[in-house]
Amino acid sequence: MNLALIPLLPAISFVILILIGRRLGKAAPLISLSALLGSLVLSIQLFLQITASHGHPVHASMVWLPMAEQSFRFGFLADPLSITMCLVVTVIGWMIMLYSTGYMTDDPRYSRFFAYLSLFFAAMLTLVLADHFVLLYIGWEVVGLCSYLLISFWFEKPSAAAAGKKAFLTTRVGDLGLLAAILLMAKFGGNLNFGNWETKAQALGHLTPLVAVLLFWGAAGKSAQFPLHVWLPDAMEGPTPVSALIHAATMVAAGVYLVARCMPLFLAEPSALMVVATLAAITSFFAATIACTQTDLKKILAYSTLSQLGFMMLGLASGSAVAGMFHLVTHAWFKALLFLGAGSVIHAMHHQDTTKMGGLLKKMPITGATFIIASVAMAGVPPLSGFWSKEEILISVGGHLPPLFLWVGLAVSLMTAFYITKTVIVTFFGECRDHHAHAHESPWTMAAPLLFLSVGAAFVGLLGSPFFEHSFQHFLAPEETGGHSSAPAWIQTVSVLIAATGIGLAFVRYQLGKQLLPERMRVRLRPIYQLIDNKYYIDEIYEKIFIRPVAALGRLSWDFDAGVVDAIVNGVGRLTQVLSECKRQFDEQIVDGFVNATAIWTGRAGQTVRLLQTGLVQNYLWLAAAGAVALFFLIRR
Amino acid sequence: MGSLILSQLVFLPLAAALLTLVIPKERESWIRAVALLATGMVLVLATLLVFSYRPLLSGFQFEEKISWIPQVNVWYHLGVDGISLPLVFLTALISFVGVIASASIQDRLKEYFFLYLLLATGMMGTFLALDLFLFYIFWEIVLVPMYFLIGIWGGPRREYAAIKFFLYTLAGSVFMLLAIIACYFSSLPHTFSIPDLTQQGLRLSHNMQWAVFMGFFLAFAIKVPIFPFHTWLPDAHVEAPTPISVILAGVLLKMGGYGFFRISLPLMPGIATQFAIVFAVLGVINIIYGAMVALAQTDFKKLVAYSSVSHMGFVLLGLGAMNLPGFNGAALEMFNHGMITGGMFLLVGVLYDRTHTRNLADFGGLGAKIPVYSGLLIFFSMASLGLPALSGFVGEFLSLMGGFLSFPAITLVSVLGLVVGAAIFLLLIQKVLLGVFQTKWAHLRDINTRELLAIVPLMAMVLWVGLFPRTILFLQSTTLGNLLRHLGSMKGW
Amino acid sequence: MLIPTSHILVVSAGLFALGLFGALTRRNAVGILMSIELILNSANLNLIAFSRSWGTQQADLQVAVLIVIGIAAAGAVAGLALILAISRHRQTIQADEIKELKG
């Protein structure tokens, strides 16, 4: 019962807010905040219960679809994996919601924003706690809806409306993979409940890799992995708390969660893992390169999220669900913080172009400081949280995947450190390049979450560090013992060095203003820079090969429908008309002609005979006499 | 509970229709009250029926059987089972909602409600008749009022649409009549009774059975409608007044699918199982093609009409699957589509009443001006595109699952329709609600209480079925299971 | 001395001719009616003549004469009544001015 309340409380809050939200005015967030607080407390209680029972899951279910032979039993399942996600969602979510009360304060649709957020939490917690693929899918789609509604929240901007649509459709393409995987499992894999993965994999047999890849395809849609990553950068059109909550910390991590949840299926078939690894590496690497060239504050963070999600997937692809999940947790903290910091900056500056910022640390000390903490955490500087999870992934990748992936991982680390340092420098240091701006520190509702999250961003990673005896890893997967043994020992050292190099390069380039490359090479590399700056033209390519053809096909079908199918129907109608006209002519001219002719001739005969009838009595007498005479002669003869 | 509940369901509207005839024309509120009361009572009766129905029993319940024309063995025979029960409830609800939505009708009210109530009788009778002769009569009764309702109270091209609808459907039912006669003469003793015919099967040669099957198929295919027999639908929907569009989409389209379930499958199980793959293929064509055409529409109502074509594809797919999830999905999708698309047409009507345009290019940015309406439009759009937790998803999912168990490849193709389907409704939302607000709509009023009253019951059902689909599935599962056993293919689940 | 039958027949034929002539040529409806009476009486004369020549045992022809007289009287009544009505209605009894029955 308590379990069901976790998603139910925000759902109730959604219903209240959507019905009477506008009348509540500024009090609207109180409802959603208290509902989510309830979920938070229940999650912590569950967490304690699970830790106390050494990872024994809590489970509750009910029949959703009754069918003669097999019913769908849905329910909620709290095991270490889902309760971890649950805590991330509720804790970070609560902070972001608190922050939103300040950030959205001037918005005319204030209460509706919190209604949508509540719906999002209800769906996200359903997704996380589901014990059944179909229930997961329900949550999965509803969070997609919320993402759509919130990206398009400022729908008066056409770009926001378009971005929401793009996000929904792109993720829907991914969802098809998930749906197909569900169908395949329903047909061949026995049942759709979580658990019994080995029997499921056995039942699926040679289909296992296909199912696994399809699941990953679904996850790729939600987690914005190449080639379905295009929606996430555009999704930055939404309000910044939304970007922080949905498009950095929680929803986009759902794909990672799904893969982690279905890890046994992937492990049963290494070829599927290679697919995941390849796409993850591509996403992670190319998104990092793009992040280096962007100047829009939120876009930088968006590409950074892409890159980090790829990184998590890479960790999962190495066969370690723990590594991916660990990075998911730390990333949720520092990336949410980065976005909220960015939101605070945007709130103060009213724009998000980093080329027009600078020197903001002095004007916004809390925002600046917390942003720097998050950046350092992401760059992978020990002992902040990003370091531990990144190291965990690199070690796992080094131990289980071909060396190429390790190199990609290291390159991504380097670029991450570089671009985030660059962002910090151009935003918070130096001189302000926009003299009209009167930036000021944000109100406490926004500052408090920043401070709280910065503590987490700094120290959450320690839970998975040797200082706490890898307690995170043990909680999540008691049987997985770290797997440090097979990895090259030098990775740890190298990864620290690489983070330092990245930070150093950015410092030299942007703080000291020195060009890193000689002029000649920069000219040579210009086209590549252009390519990256235009995001590899992927949006344009999709526009050409998918969107326009589909739209054209739609118009073609419509023309076909109106021009051929309906024309045939109308043609049959017209043909019938023509035929009936022919029949009418036949009827009138020939069939009716005979009838009329008879009548006409009868009439004419009558006309002639009537001349006899003069009406004069004596005429008749004459005739009678003549007749008598004639009769006389006739009889005589 | 009276034992004649089914007859009451059928003839209450007819009695009310006769009553409207004796009310003076000027007493418009009386006429409206009579119609509202009659359909309201039908709705109450239908609800009672749902609750007193025993889902676990096989066969028909609440049967009424009276000899009608003994010389040719025609019976007045009504009955309800798990297939018809949800549709009976749907018909009752949609009829009731339609009366509320008829407030926008102003001229010739008396004739309007007379025809409307007659239509309600015809629809209810079609779903309850268990005698082919009676079925055919009710089937045809539906046509006549519908013809006048479109032809008199419709839009600018109403005559064209009404005639097209009438002739198209009539052309189909002629073949059905032939098939019915063939069924009658093939049975010994000659009978029109559907249960009897089901039990004894048709004593016809294989080829003859095919001919009979195709006769029924044509009639039902036009009603569903199945590509390429669908072009009457957009015209009729677009031209019909709002409440009639709601009924067309909500109930009339279901008569085709119901016919397959009630007649084609049980009477000719052999042919039907051979035909399964054709159903599935036609279903996929409907899904993709309907969605594609809808994508290119600029008229709000036409877009919804074509999306109906796409949705009915899921019914066909589930039907073709010939397994329990598929059948459940098909039957449920019929029920859901009635609610969802009915609601969608109500919303189109609400906007049209205010703006007198349905051209999507004329709208934009209305989301800020009419928030309640926007919320409803988003809700029904999401239900239409199959968002889980709303009813549309359950039907589509079960149909897809059933289809996948039988025809994996075909079904995987149809999954693409989900993306296009999503694109349609997102485009719709974008064009109507999002974007820059146009000042010409500055005086637009939000949805009023009366319109809300019509739409809220549908909304509640959509949400309820989406969250607790078992309430409906529970009613129909036993019957569908029996039908499957009759078809002799209890494969899969 | 009996008058031979042939003589009576001649008289009768003369009467008939007179009657026919009158009926065909008179314009006055009463005249026509009178002429028709003449024709009838010529027939009566014929009948009487033949009755005498056939002997007295058979009274058939005499009966016929009585019937003809009766009918003639009836005819005269009906004819005169019609003429009276026509004369009242049309203010004329000239036969060639009355053609109500012209086809």
What can you tell me about this protein's structure?
The complex is a heterotrimer of chains A (637), B (493) and C (103). Chain A is an all-alpha fold. Chain A is built from 25 helices and 2 strands. Chain A has helices at 2-24, 28-52, 80-103, 110-129, 133-151, 158-188, 197-204, 208-222, 231-234, 240-249, 253-261, 263-267, 270-293, 297-317, 321-349, 360-363, 365-379, 385-400, 403-428, 444-459, 471-476, 490-511, 519-533, 538-610, 617-636; strands spanning 58-65, 72-78. A two-stranded antiparallel sheet of chain A has the order 1-2. In chain A, α11 (253-261) packs antiparallel against α15 (321-349), α14 packs antiparallel against α19 and α15 (321-349) packs antiparallel against α17 (365-379). The radius of gyration of chain A is 38 Å and the shape is elongated. The model of chain A has no long low-confidence stretch (mean pLDDT 85). Chain B has a domain at 275-493. Chain B contains 19 helices and 2 strands. Chain B has helices at residues 5-22, 28-52, 84-101, 109-128, 132-153, 158-186, 194-200, 206-223, 232-239, 242-267, 269-295, 300-321, 324-355, 366-369, 371-384, 391-406, 408-432, 449-467, 470-487, and strands at 61-69, 74-80. A two-stranded antiparallel sheet of chain B has the order 1-2. The longest helix of chain B has 32 residues, at 324-355. The model of chain B has no long low-confidence stretch (mean pLDDT 89). Chain C is mainly alpha-helical and 103 residues long. Chain C has one domain: Helix Hairpins (Orthogonal Bundle). The model of chain C has no long low-confidence stretch (mean pLDDT 87). The interface between A and B is large, with 59 and 64 residues.
